[in-house]
Specification:
Blueprint lengths: L9 E4 L5 H12 L3 E6 L3 H10 L6 E4 L5 H14 L5 E4 L14 H29 L4 E5 L12 H21 L5 E7 L5 H9 L1 H10 L8 H12 L10 E4 L10
Parallel strand pairs: 1-2, 1-4, 2-3, 4-5, 5-6, 6-7
Helix pairs in contact: 1-8, 3-4, 4-5, 6-7
Length: 256
């Protein structure tokens, strides 16, 4: 049982049906937060997933973050349902291995849109609602350790996450006078979802992941959820413009 209480927090999350998001939703709900979930799946597909997690009571809105009109209408619907929303988690994102030479323009642009531009559209809509209502909200993005550590084959993803972190810091500076904070959580190699599947099936990738972690371990999805739980709580009320690295030391610069 968490000692953190979020009974005064109403959370809106994008990418809420992902592998890590399951742990985030469970942690936030257990702490007493009201949570509104969005993802690209229609509710008919999303509802069974949430129910299998024991979270069938949560509000759900289908929203594709790569479509600015869908983001606008989705956020509008969320605030109509829950005008008290005071935390927004821009969690949607993802990639595959797409070396730049073989990653055509369409694919590259799609990845940049998914991981960066979609976050800016989400932020614009949420911040507009908060400024209109005078809400002192907290916007938190999910970044990645590869925003600081170059990695072959994922140039669109690494560049997008680097841009996202600077974007968050700029927003933190601009909106601090209005009592609105902006931060990031930066995971490492998480033992969940596609990363876990590749780790289990690819011995080369598995050996690399095991080698680059100073702590000799991958991130558990629960560790990432705990980071969000902390940032959403009053324990983090004076944290702004920060990138919280939860990566088991993978993002540390290394020689040799």
């Amino acid at each position: 049982m968490s000692s953190i209480t979020l009974s005064d927090k109403s959370v809106l999350i994008t990418g809420g049906l992902g592998a890590i998001a399951e742990f985030m939703l469970k942690a936030l709900s257990a702490a007493g937060a009201t949570v509104t979930v969005t993802d690209r799946q229609p509710e008919s597909e999303a509802r069974p997933i949430l129910e299998s997690w024991g979270l069938g009571h949560l509000d759900y809105i289908g929203m594709d973050v790569t479509d600015p009109d869908a983001v606008r209408s989705g956020v509008e619907k969320a605030f109509s349902l829950r005008p008290e929303i005071n935390i927004a988690l821009g969690h949607a994102g993802g990639t595959g291995i797409f070396p730049f030479e073989t990653c055509d323009r369409g694919r590259f642009d799609q990845l940049v849109t998914f991981n960066f531009l979609g976050q800016t559209w989400f932020a614009r809509e949420v911040l507009g609602h908060w400024r209109g209502s005078g809400t002192e909200g907290h916007l938190i993005f999910t970044s990645s350790y590869v925003s600081r550590i170059p990695m072959s084959g994922i140039s669109a993803y690494t560049a997008s996450k680097a841009a996202l972190e600077m974007f968050a810091k700029n927003l933190a500076l601009e909106y601090a006078p209005h009592g609105i904070r902006v931060n990031c959580v930066s995971p490492g190699n998480v033992a969940a979802g596609s990363s876990l599947a590749v780790y289990d099936s690819d011995p080369v990738y598995r050996a690399w992941v095991d080698r680059v972690s100073p702590l000799g371990t991958r991130n558990s999805p629960q560790a990432i959820a705990n980071a969000f739980l902390y940032l959403c709580s009053h324990l983090a009320d004076e944290i702004d413009g920060h990138v919280l690295q939860v990566d088991a030391g993978v993002g540390l610069p290394k020689l040799g």
